[in-house]
Amino acid sequence: MPSWFASPYYALLYRHRDEREAEKFVEVLVQNLSISPPARVLDAGCGRGRYARAFAKYGFEVDAIDNATQPVDLPEGVNFYPADYTSWKPPHLYDLVGSFFSSFGHTTNWDAVVRSMKALRSFISPGGYLVLDYLNIAKRNPLPQETREIEGVSFEITRWQDSHGLYKRIHVRADGQEEVYEEVLYKLTQGDLAALADRVKLEVVAWWGDYEGRPFSVEESPRLILIGRAP
User: Fold this and answer.
1) Distance between CA atoms of 100 and 66, rounded to whole angstroms?
2) Residue 2 has pLDDT above 70, yes or no
3) Which tens digit of pLDDT belongs to each residue from 97-126?
4) Residue 153 gets which letter from DSSP?
5) In this structure, are residues 168 and 196 in contact, taking their beta carbons and an 8 Å threshold?
6) Using N-to-C axis directions, what is the helix angle for 190-199 and 110-122, rounded to 10°?
7) CB neighbour burial string for 169-199, b if at least 16 within 10 angstroms, e if fewer
8) How far apart are CA 58 and CA 37, in angstroms?
9) Cα torsion at 24, 38, 209, 163 (round to 10°)?
């Protein structure tokens, strides 16, 4: 099955997750955390690189890593590593490590989730931050089936779940061709993320529920954002 995250259709379906959204969230982070340029930032699971670009635009020293796709138009000075970060040896530690837009937890194996969290923690310098941006599973899209038409491309989306994971199958039809992709995400609650933070000795300094930095509410928030800090 072709890679969903590397396909042009992924970017098309999520085109509302744009540069402006990333830049606004970076601004909120700078306003609320004890971090400022030219601190070192790692965009872990960077995808097409919109957060790496946003941090670089703000003046941070930025590295980015992803093993599923490659970012586009990274500014000069941003280093990209085409690798799985769970087995990666970084060139240095970082003042902030970010995992944005649910790039964490694409598995139904708890041990794999723990390995990912340990890896992210290992990249953080003393006093540095982890920003883990996850979805609020209580407020996810409840529709089991959905069809969207975007720029002449048809997306037929089927969703289901079990005790461990959320699953999505995407049938894409464009120019008389059809491709099928799948996406899986571990069903992580606030309690799960708190337990992971405690396991890797990160202090939880905030729980945010959106990209404006508002407090997390399981009933209302679209996102579940852990702000952790290393001793």
Assistant:
1) 12
2) no
3) 999 999 999 999 999 999 999 999 999 999
4) E
5) no
6) 50
7) bbebebeeeeeebebebbbbebebbeebbee
8) 7
9) 120
Quote the tokens at residue 157.
Answer: 């989306």
Rounded to an integer, what distance in angstroms lies between the CA atom of residue 10 and that of residue 80?
A: 20
Q: How many CB atoms lie within 10 A of CB 209?
A: 20
Residue type (1 letter), 191: G
* pLDDT at 44 (0 to 100): 97
And the tokens for 168? 């999505």
The H or E element that residue 57 is part of is: helix 50-58
Burial class (CB in 10 A: 0-12, 13-18, 19+), 71: buried
Amino acid at 33: L
What are the structure tokens assigned to 161, written together? Answer: 């779940």
For residue 20, the one-letter residue type is R
Strand, coil or helix: 148 = strand
